Amino acid sequence: xxxxxxxxxxxxxxxxxxxxxxxxxxxxxxxxxxxxxxxxxxxxxxxxxxxxxxxxxxxxxxxxxxxxxxxxxxxxxxxxxxxxxxxxxxxxxxxxxxxxxxxxxxxxxxxxxxxxxxxxxxxxxxxxxxxxxxxxxxxxxxxxxxxxxxxxxxxxxxxxxxxxxxxxxxxxxxxxxxxxxxxxxxxxxxxxxxxxxxxxxxxxxxxxxxxxxxxxxxxxxxxxxxxxxxxxxxxxxxxxxxxxxxxxxxxxxxxxxxxxxxxxxxxxxxxxxxxxxxxxxxxxxxxxxxxxxxxxxxxxxxxxxxxxxxxxxxxxxxxxxxxxxxxxxxxxxxxxxxxxxxxxxxxxxxxxxxxxxxxxxxxxxxxxxxxxxxxxxxxxxxxxxxxxxxxxxxxxxxxxxxxxxxxxxxxxxxxxxxxxxxxxxxxxxxxxxxxxxxxxxxxxxxxxxxxxxxxxxxxxxxxxxxxxxxxxxxxxxxxxxxxxxxxxxx
Length: 490
Prior knowledge:
By secondary structure, this protein is mainly α. It has helices at residues 2-21, 24-43, 61-90, 98-114, 118-136, 142-172, 183-188, 195-213, 221-228, 231-256, 262-283, 290-311, 314-344, 355-358, 360-373, 380-394, 398-424, 429-434, 456-470, 474-486. The protein contains 20 helices and no strands.
């Protein structure tokens, strides 16, 4: 367990050093160094066939998948932050709380994923808003302050509800030897758990953690938070914070996966999942701010994850693959939105035109990422969504299938029309002025020089997604199947 403690403590220690030094160079070095060390150390953790005797920290195949996603995403944000922090430092707008908040955030989500106890997991998840609110208020203006308070208030409600879930589980485990909150012990004694209190525990956990996951109708903090935070932080929210809350729900799901209660639990997941996809389909075609579009897209994909788990069977494997692919693609999209914001001074879709001429590499990344996020082959999301549809057909869930297809098509249309207009349209000068765009080199149509680190993470992530869409490596395939097996899938 010493290694698990080390990869939680290291980012916290680096955050304190960053606060003391208040140096842009030190912050940039710390972010990259910590991300490399944590990624390397995490990959050496034992996760398969390990018996855990009421240990507080540790991982299994399910946790290992999420730990990998967190560390890969953080490395991408750390590389991108190197460019972002250098530019803000040169512009004398450097915020010395950015790096400590990012590092503290990494420590908390890592702790949540490694927790083998529902109470300890709640503590780690509940501490994340401290860091995320700091990042949302990064620009220190009225709108970002309002978004930060909104995030804190709504997520606090979610944290309170999930705590009621923890207390309900304590009551449900009255007959369980030791009467604790150990995930492993509860999973081994499911027959002794009270169905009434167990059902309450899952329901409160779903609503509470679902608020932080961004499931509709509890998602209202998410569009404001994503649009106000720096792009590298928004990418972390979408790729790790929401996944972390999703894993917390899955830990409750895991306990009841092989009990008669699972039908009730799956129906709840299915209902909230479809409602979230509906929210995305309604708002994506309507909003003009591209980062808000991405935020609503995230709400939709959280809905797809919940729907997958609600379907069961092979769809749970699809949920694991979807979690990995969505996190990486959405990370690439948020980082690329930062490049557009720097070049055009806005992320309003009506204020951006001829992007292929101004930021050609970012434009190509944007188009490829959007095609991947809506599931166009060779995206790994095509594979995961095809598996979901296969499960719907196998179980003759024709209504669910029809709703899923119609809503997904609406989301895809909303994304493609706006992005193609941003990238290929040449006659939006007036629209740009109406949108309030304040470009650094207004009127210029020459291509902007794009730093390597502002593009490299996106290309790597898109490469991984393309590979998973063509051939899933054997080791990854086995890992995802074993993670799905823990949840009663295959």
